[in-house]
Amino acid sequence: LASNAVAWSAAARHAVAWSATRPPTRLAMQEDALASLFEDKPPASWSSPEWQWGSAAGAAHEVAARVREDLNKPHRRSAFLTYAKADEPAVDLVDLKMALALACQRARNYGCDEPDRRWEALMEEMAACKYERMEEDATGKAVPTIDVTALAEAVNGRLPTPFGAAVLSERPVSVIAEGLVALDFVEKGC
Q1: Within 13 Å and on the Cβ side, how many CA atoms surround 189?
Q2: Is 113 helix (H, G, I), strand (E, B) or coil?
Q3: Three-state secondary-structure class, residue 135
Q4: Phi, psi angle pair for 136, to nearest 5°
Q5: Runs of H (alpha helix) within the chain
């Protein structure tokens, strides 16, 4: 029995040494990605110090680059809006908010904003974290979340034809997506 234990531990040591020299397998990478979902620290958000909207060094820059890459073609932007306006929205709210902020920024930078600069003002409000609130997660820890209702109300007030209260309360993500429509997002991008 002792010789088997010694033999097994030698084999185990060899396996560990061998696996350390090999690149990680797809399964190992998936396990790492899954483990990262349960990190103590949530990903950066608009209210995080590392977000730094407008800076090339902040987490916002990384998210903006990813969203721009993901939505770099009109058909992708069209599909994104379709999923956002579905009865059961199927878009990441972080991506939707970032796309909206980038479209607002684009409207300002290219002189496409309304004369009252409503979309620039919305972008500034988002950067000031006006549409984030703190909620408790499953562990009771307070984490920042997007205040979808408040953001939808802000977008609705800027639309050429605002939605009624029923649509605003029942489909706030669709209302946010309509902000992108008003900014000609499918054609112009972000």
Answers
A1: 12
A2: coil
A3: strand
A4: -85, 135
A5: 2-21, 26-37, 59-70, 74-84, 93-109, 118-127, 148-156, 165-170, 172-182, 185-188
**Full-model pTM:** 0.76
Per-residue pLDDT tens over the stretch 171-188? 999 999 999 999 999 998
Distance between CA atoms of 83 and 11, rounded to whole angstroms?
52
Find the radius of gyration of the CA atoms of the chain: 23
Alpha carbon distance 101, 79 (integer Å): 18
The rounded distance, in Å, linking the Cα atoms of 117 and 120 is 5
DSSP state of 172: H
CA distances for 12 relative to 1, 31, 70, 119, angstroms: 16, 21, 43, 61
